[in-house]
Structure formats: structure tokens, C-alpha cells
Design goal:
The protein folds into 2 domains: 71 residues, no CATH class; 61 residues, no CATH class. The protein contains 5 helices and 2 strands; from the N terminus they run ααααββα. The radius of gyration is 36 Å and the shape is rod-shaped. The N and C termini lie far apart (98 Å).
Length: 170
């Protein structure tokens, strides 16, 4: 006579034990998949409601986890944040390089160059007192506090002469 838990009409105690152990393994794997889906969703999704939806989908045995694996974001939140930081750092490096390039020929120059070594354009004027390079728009030397006479007019003259020398683009 079969036992009280005879599945599929199986009367053998050994076969019944094997079937019970297989069902236990399937249930343990199902709960492990629910846990894995929740943990993975928390690493990939920023919205707690979406994490809850992914966990609820995993309650459907095996199918919910497979669907979650298809529609989940391709990268972890930490990786996305790190990529964004790397992009910002690269943009900052590019902006810094642009600060130290000649505005006329775009060749790389050092910040204390007075003339561009490529196109010989005047990048800065030397201070009349301390001889340190000054930006063309400065009216006071930041190093020795000396007044720079005609700084704006000299830079305007220089820009106008460069505009006359270069042919119009187009």
C-alpha cells in the first residue's frame, strides 16, 4: 500500500524519497533565484519600485527570473557612475588642454609662453616691472601689482591685425 505522500502513484519508499528530495531541491533553487533576482536588481536599478517589481516577477517559478534577465539593465549602477566620472575627468582634461593651446593655430603652448612657437603670435605681454607673462586682458600684474597700461587696446589691436592677415573662412 502506498504511503500517504505517494506522488504520481509511486508506491516505493525509495523512489518516493528521491522524488521528495528532487522537489525540495527545485524549491530551494526557486527561492535562491528569488533572492538572486532581488540582489541583482538592487545592484542594477536605482528605483526601489522597479526592484520590487523584479522580485515579484521572480515569484513566478523560473520564468520570472528568465524574463528579468532579459530586460535587466546591462550594467551595474556602480559601473555606470564610474563611467560617468571617467567621462567627466576626460572632459576636464580636454578643457585643460584647450586652455593651453594657441588661439590662432591651436598648437599646444605652455601657460607662461609670451609668443606661440608655431605661428609667432603674441599670446601675452611681459610685465614692464617683473617681466612675467601677463594675459592680454589684464590691467594689473597679479605678481607685482603694477598697472599695465593699454592692455585692452593692445589686445584689440592684435586681434584686429590677425583678422586682417588671415583669409576669410568659407
Amino acid at each position: 500500500m502506498p504511503g500517504p505522500f505517494a506522488y504520481f502513484g509511486i508506491g516505493s519508499n525509495k523512489v518516493n524519497l528521491v522524488v521528495n528530495l528532487l522537489l525540495l531541491v527545485v524549491v530551494i533553487v526557486w527561492f535562491a533565484l528569488i533572492y538572486w533576482t532581488r540582489a541583482d536588481a538592487r545592484r542594477r536599478l536605482d528605483d526601489p519600485v522597479l526592484v520590487l517589481c523584479a522580485t515579484a516577477a521572480a515569484l513566478f517559478p523560473f520564468v520570472g527570473t528568465i524574463i528579468y534577465m532579459i530586460v535587466r539593465p546591462p550594467e551595474y549602477l556602480d559601473d555606470a557612475r564610474e563611467r560617468d566620472l571617467e567621462i567627466q575627468a576626460a572632459e576636464a582634461r580636454l578643457a585643460q588642454l584647450a586652455l593651453y593651446s594657441c588661439p590662432y593655430c591651436s598648437q599646444e603652448v605652455e601657460k607662461d609662453f609670451i609668443l606661440c612657437p608655431s605661428c609667432h603670435s603674441r599670446l601675452r605681454e611681459p610685465c614692464v616691472h617683473c617681466q612675467r607673462p601677463l594675459d592680454m586682458t589684464w590691467s594689473v600684474c597679479p605678481y607685482c601689482e603694477a598697472h599695465v597700461p593699454g592692455a585692452l587696446s593692445a589686445s584689440r589691436r592684435h586681434l584686429e591685425s590677425r583678422a586682417r592677415e588671415s583669409p576669410p573662412a568659407g
